[in-house]
């Protein structure tokens, strides 16, 4: 009976030690990498923009467009980049047939222009964007990689982006950090004036 109690105590101690070690390992992992959930997937700051985006079920259209435009390698490079990433429903708001037309090989230049219009050189957090808006007395103008500007303003508790066509998009998830920049999830596709 004493032997049984002794074995039970040893087994309990072993289980507690393993549980504590696992909890500590998990806590250490969380301290190293603060993830944000986007499209049902964890976005890891140690992964690049493309490595994270391919896991988001909300960004399958964007990922397909990036691949069709031949921009995967660019968005995997060191950057840093600030990407305003439209969700699938943002692409669905475009006129019927727009996405299909953009994905055709003969429209690759136009597709590249639309996609790079969502990218700004450098890593700009939401705090950085809000500081620029404050410096600009309520608005901030950013030059995109496509060469055209976007205008930002604070709208309630979020940031609203206006494209050169007059369209508006709102940041729905800010500060999704990447190894080569940051993603801000947006609810509409930005379209440069042609």
Can you describe this structure?
This protein is α+β, with helices and mostly antiparallel strands. The protein folds into two domains: 1-31; 43-186, FAS1 domain (Roll), CATH 2.30.180.10. It has eight helices and nine strands. The protein has helices at 2-32, 49-53, 60-68, 72-76, 88-92, 98-102, 108-116, 126-135, and strands at residues 36-38, 41-43, 81-86, 119-121, 140-143, 149-155, 158-162, 168-178, 181-186. The protein has a seven-stranded mixed β-sheet. A two-stranded antiparallel sheet has the order 1-2. A hairpin with a 2-residue loop joins strand 8 (168-178) and strand 9. Helix 3 packs across helix 7 (108-116).
